[in-house]
Amino acid sequence: MKAGKKDEDGQLMVMILGYVALALLVATVVIGISAVYLEHKRLLSLADGASLAAADSYTLGEVTTQGGSPSAVLNPARVRNVAADFVARSPASERFDSLAVAGATGTPDGSTAVVVLTAVVHPPVVNFLVPGGIPIEAASTARSRLTR
């Protein structure tokens, strides 16, 4: 009996080391995914602010009547410039790597401002696996309403 028991010594340690390695791997993946998710939410918040600023970029000289009610007309170039200026002035823009206003930024219908921002996220711990980072994109729309 003693000889059989000696053959089994240390097998519990191998199993414990395997479970610890698996737990560390799962924790690392969860940390990486959470970092990308949180950075995307921050980028979306910045895009929301930029689209709101861009939606308010109309001038009173560009007000027309459509269907009997006044509406603001947006200029696609102005929407892009206002969004880029908002992003450049925002302190939140410093936390993103390769932050840019994408080419899809503008106004598809002349009354809705669409802002698309792109950035690169470098997740902690697993950064050596993706040295170039993970590209993310956030899009936001806003519309101005004129009321009396």
- The shape, in one word, is rod-shaped
Total helical segments: 3
Residue share in helix: 40-55%
Order of helices and strands: HHEEHEEE
Structural Rg: 26 Å
Briefly note the structural class of the backbone.
alpha+beta
Write a compact overview of the structure shown:
The protein has 148 residues and is α+β, with helices and mostly antiparallel strands. The protein has one domain.
Which key terms come to mind for this protein?
rod-shaped, three-stranded antiparallel sheet, 22% strand, alpha+beta, 148 residues
Write up what this structure looks like.
The chain is α+β, with helices and mostly antiparallel strands. It has one domain. Helix content is 45%, strand content 22%. Strands 3-4-5 form a three-stranded antiparallel beta sheet. Helix 2 crosses helix 3. The longest helix has 45 residues.
Give the SSE map.
Layout: H1 2-8, H2 11-55, E1 63-66, E2 69-72, H3 76-89, E3 97-101, E4 112-121, E5 134-143
Antiparallel strand pairs: 1-2, 3-4, 4-5
